[in-house]
Design goal:
globular; nine-stranded mixed beta sheet; alpha/beta; 306 residues; 9 strands; single chain; disordered C terminus; 40% helix; 2-enoyl-CoA Hydratase, Chain A, domain 1; Peptidase_S49
Length: 306
């Protein structure tokens, strides 16, 4: 049987948009590193590297299904991990030649486990230098959780952001297996929450309690990162008048109107703006024309003659 990426995740709570993530979850585990750069463009990030720096700007791609520390996915596919994001943020915060950081997002989200540490690391980095998020083309669920901690969020045309919420799949044996046996699951007396039975009302209540606790932390981080009053966030995320109808993704115009993003621009325009704001300015002497250099030389020669 082929081992898929989904097999790494089990039934753990996910902050992942299923519409965009299902295909990635079904991929087989890679057997060798993918070819080519992890990110190309104004700053090329080599495969296997977590970020690259050019002209005072560091660029970190956050791609694929996010996991705490799945090194095989990071090394072979170029997908980000929470451990890698946290380590990169610490390094970039201390790197004196980095004036600003770009985090480019292309992710449906991933596991909840470990995500809070990565989000906290981005927030800590944004406290010491500008961190610009570029949604190109997707920052969903845990991906948006991370993006919300950046100093600003820009979205390329046709991109999507949001899918804020937590999900979990739960299974329970209800019929005989291939050998004709029906399995039952037991927990110890004081461990009923260890493996709640989704076939019972008590089990469903425990699953929802756990999901709601994760969602509350998710909402609190987004509200703080985006400067939205926590009591207003659920209504902004809903597609109806009912605050429970959240979890959707939004294009640039709708995301900006809801306070989830700041601007819409092409990738080229985004990087032009970032480098114009943060790249080192040429020395005054280098900005002078050739005629100016000749005039300075003539003046120096005249002073020497006098």
């Amino acid at each position: 049987m082929e081992t898929t990426i989904a097999s790494l995740l089990g039934a753990a709570p996910l902050a992942l948009d299923r519409d965009f993530g299902a295909g990635l979850l079904g991929l087989p585990l890679p057997a060798a590193p993918a070819a080519g750069p992890a990110l190309s463009g104004p700053v090329e990030v080599a495969r296997g590297e977590r970020f690259a720096v050019a002209r005072g700007v560091a660029v970190m791609p956050v791609r694929g299904v996010l996991t705490p520390n799945a090194e095989i996915l990071e090394r072979f596919l170029g997908w980000a991990t929470f451990a890698g994001i946290e380590a990169s943020c610490g390094a970039l915060a201390a790197q004196e030649d980095v004036a600003a950081v770009v985090i480019e997002f292309d992710t449906p989200g991933g596991l909840v486990l470990g995500g809070a540490a990565a989000a906290g690391a981005i927030a800590a980095l944004a406290a010491v230098k500008p961190v610009h998020a570029l949604v190109n083309p997707l920052a969903a669920s845990m991906g948006y959780h991370l993006a919300s901690q950046c100093s600003e969020i820009a979205m390329t045309p046709g991109s999507l952001a949001g899918s804020i919420g937590i999900m979990r799949q739960a299974g329970w044996p209800v019929g005989p297996d291939g050998a004709g046996q029906q399995w039952q699951i037991f927990t110890s007396t004081h461990a009923r929450a260890k493996l709640p039975n989704p076939e019972t009302e008590a089990g469903r209540a425990e699953i929802r309690r756990d999901l709601d606790a994760h969602e509350a932390a998710f909402h609190a981080d987004v509200a703080r990162g985006r400067g939205i009053a926590p009591e207003d966030l659920a209504a902004r995320l809903s597609v109806t008048d009912d605050p429970a109808d959240g979890g959707a993704t939004f294009g640039p115009e709708a995301a900006i109107a809801r306070g989830l993003a700041d601007r819409a621009e092409t990738r080229l325009a985004f990087y032009d703006r970032i480098f114009a704001a943060h790249a080192p300015k040429p020395a005054a002497a280098r900005r002078g024309s050739g005629r100016g250099h000749l005039a300075q030389a003539a003046a120096a020669q005249a002073r020497a003659t006098l």
